[in-house]
């Protein structure tokens, strides 16, 4: 029976990537199972900090006496709502919500730790700012008596340090909360550590998005790449063009993200040190746009007559650029991040080739029959429009591959699995900042421990100079939405995405699969205890099992 079951599951290993995307990368055999690991000397820390020293000396830590406080020297005090919010959140993670920190002033024993002081050392704490690609997430943590100290130049490092401190707390054999004397010096290896979620192919309720932002913070991800619209639906409710979601969403009232929803997601993410980078992909992947915006898409022809179907955005009409100008002006005011993702991938030229008006335009422009030049014509005008809104942009790799003239500060997002290292070499040799996703398409599912494959991929293994490798600012794990919605997204994502989180945060030399398995198993159980239904790595149990909805 088990053999039949395994065979049935193996048959499910199908291409469930972004549309027809194929980016599979050969990796290690994830069926080489790891089980019954020894305890890691690093406990359950995930991702592993850059420098860790954990002593055998331990202290008790109780919710009735423990406090998270601002150090007297800190530039961020009680008025910093970001930190005050974080103190409450991490207190509840460690002790539950029954008591509030600092309310009980009972006498404590000599082996009890009663305080973590958070010290923001720079003059500008950035408490009221939004995180950016240049945000300083470094921190130093010292756990000892008379109190623990968390030092960070900015609040972003303090958030990462609070997560680390909470991970150091464990239960001893008697169930008492305990923490060991520890020194940690930490910073991320890569500045851009992202997660792409697709809310077009299936609508994702706000509650699901917020839960996964919470999980992202637990794993020190710092970019939510919101692939908010696509061919299938247009759930973004635009103030300027409300007909886009009115006609293009699955439902105009229940399956849309209102301005208030978007604002909530952005602020929820900011409080966790996470950027929200929206993607509005054109000229392809735009079928849902055309339902609410007349003449935006190209009419396709069958012979000399319109076929009644539509292709990519129509690049030859001035009205197209008038629309894009107004639309991206709105986007620049709604989304606070410095970047917007403009897509540019998988443009099907067939419809353009069939349209007689476009054929004439091609002749007039001297493009011949090279429709990549028409794509370049559109993209260049779009980039000028977005630049005028004071936004910078990210594009999928095809825009680079098709020789579109890009501005020097363009970020190129590499996703294709074939000739990956050659692509990374070419993009960085051209001087462009680069983000990698090819090895981390989590919508590919398989039987076994596929997290190992994600964990073992080294993002800088392509041939290139040190200067080229410095242009790789990080990567993103992608979970495209063909086969996931609110019912299964979170367990499919975690802890598989956690493997990517450590690869992008920790030192290059951190590669021990056995040690990773021990820490990740414990980290997965911690996420489960915190309410995230992360799936198991293999057989076993958690001290605090998931209790359901």
Q: Quick summary of this structure?
A:
By secondary structure, the chain is α/β, with parallel strands linked by helices. Helices cover about 35% and strands about 20% of the residues.
Written description of the protein model:
By secondary structure, this protein is an alpha/beta fold. 33% of the residues lie in helices and 18% in strands. The chain has an 8-stranded parallel beta sheet. Strands 1, 2, 3, 4, 5, 6 and 7 form a 7-stranded mixed beta sheet that branches. The protein has a two-stranded antiparallel sheet with strand order 11-12. Strand 4 and strand 5 form a beta hairpin. The two termini are 31 Å apart.
Tell me the layout of helices and strands.
Elements: H1 2-10, E1 51-60, E2 67-70, H2 81-95, E3 115-120, E4 139-143, E5 148-152, H3 155-168, E6 170-171, E7 177-186, E8 192-198, H4 206-218, E9 223-227, H5 243-248, H6 259-270, E10 275-279, H7 287-292, E11 297-302, E12 305-313, H8 318-334, E13 339-341, H9 350-354, H10 356-365, H11 371-388, E14 392-396, H12 397-401, E15 411-414, H13 420-429, E16 433-436, H14 451-456, H15 466-470, E17 472-479, H16 489-493, H17 496-505, H18 513-529
Helix pairs in contact: 2-3, 4-6, 8-11
DSSP E strands, number: 17
Oligomeric description of these chains: single chain
Q: What share of residues is helical? A: 25-40%
Overall pLDDT score: 92
- Which structural class fits the helix and strand makeup? alpha/beta
Give the termini separation. Answer: 31 Å
Radius of gyration (Å)? 25 Å
Proportion of residues in extended strands:
15-25%
* Morphology call: elongated
> Biggest sheet: strands, sense, closure?
8 strands, parallel
Low-confidence stretches: 1-22, 24-34, 98-106
In spatial order, strands of the major sheet run: 10-9-8-17-16-15-14-13
Helical segment count: 18
């Amino acid at each position: 029976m088990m053999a039949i079951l395994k065979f049935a599951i193996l048959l499910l290993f199908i291409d469930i990537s972004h549309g027809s995307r194929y980016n599979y990368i050969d990796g290690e055999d994830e069926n080489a199972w790891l089980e019954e690991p020894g305890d890691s000397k690093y406990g359950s820390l995930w991702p592993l900090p850059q420098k860790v020293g954990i002593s055998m000396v331990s202290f008790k830590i109780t919710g009735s006496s423990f406090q998270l406080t601002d150090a007297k020297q800190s530039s961020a005090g009680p008025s910093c709502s970001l930190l005050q919010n974080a103190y409450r959140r991490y207190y509840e993670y460690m002790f539950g919500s029954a008591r509030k920190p600092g309310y009980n002033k009972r006498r404590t024993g000599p082996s009890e730790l009663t305080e973590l002081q958070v010290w923001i050392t720079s003059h500008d704490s950035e408490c009221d700012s939004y995180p950016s690609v240049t945000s300083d997430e470094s921190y130093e943590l010292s756990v000892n008596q008379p109190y623990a100290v968390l030092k960070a130049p900015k609040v972003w490092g303090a958030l990462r340090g609070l997560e680390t401190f909470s991970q150091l707390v464990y239960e001893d054999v008697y169930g008492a909360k305990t923490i060991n004397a520890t020194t940690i010096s930490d910073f991320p290896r890569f500045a851009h550590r992202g997660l792409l979620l697709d809310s077009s192919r299936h609508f994702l309720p706000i509650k699901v998005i917020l839960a996964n932002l919470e999980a992202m913070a637990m794993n020190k991800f710092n970019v939510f790449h919101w692939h908010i619209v696509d061919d299938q639906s247009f759930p973004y409710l635009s103030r300027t063009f409300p007909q886009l979601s009115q006609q293009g969403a699955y439902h105009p009232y229940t399956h849309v993200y209102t301005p208030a929803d978007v604002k909530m997601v952005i602020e929820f993410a900011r409080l966790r040190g996470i950027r929200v980078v929206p993607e509005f992909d054109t000229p392809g992947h735009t079928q849902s746009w055309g339902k609410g915006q007349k003449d935006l898409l190209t009419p396709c022809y069958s012979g000399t007559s319109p076929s009644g179907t539509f292709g990519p955005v129509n690049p030859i009409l001035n009205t197209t650029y008038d629309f894009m100008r107004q639309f991206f002006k709105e986007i620049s005011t709604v989304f606070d991040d410095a970047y917007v993702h403009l897509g540019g991938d998988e443009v099907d030229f067939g419809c353009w080739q069939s349209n007689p008006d476009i054929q004439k335009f091609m002749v007039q422009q001297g493009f011949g029959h090279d429709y990549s030049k028409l794509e370049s014509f559109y993209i260049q005008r779009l980039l000028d429009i977005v630049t005028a809104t004071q936004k910078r942009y990210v594009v999928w790799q095809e825009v680079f591959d098709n020789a579109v003239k890009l501005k020097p500060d363009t970020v190129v997002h590499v996703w294709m699995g074939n000739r990956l290292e050659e692509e990374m070499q070419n993009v960085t040799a051209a001087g462009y900042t680069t983000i990698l996703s090819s090895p981390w398409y989590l919508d590919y599912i398989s039987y076994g421990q596929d997290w190992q494959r994600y964990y073992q991929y080294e993002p800088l293994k392509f041939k290139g100079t040190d200067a080229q490798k410095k242009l790789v600012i990080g990567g993103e794990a992608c979970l495209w939405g063909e086969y996931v919605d609110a019912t299964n997204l979170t367990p499919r994502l975690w802890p598989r995405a956690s493997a990517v989180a450590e690869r992008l945060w920790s030192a290059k030399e951190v590669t021990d699969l056995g040690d990773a398995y021990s820490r990740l198993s414990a980290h997965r159980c911690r996420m489960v205890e915190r309410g995230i239904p992360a799936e198991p790595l293999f057989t076993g149990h958690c001290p605090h099992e998931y209790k359901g909805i």
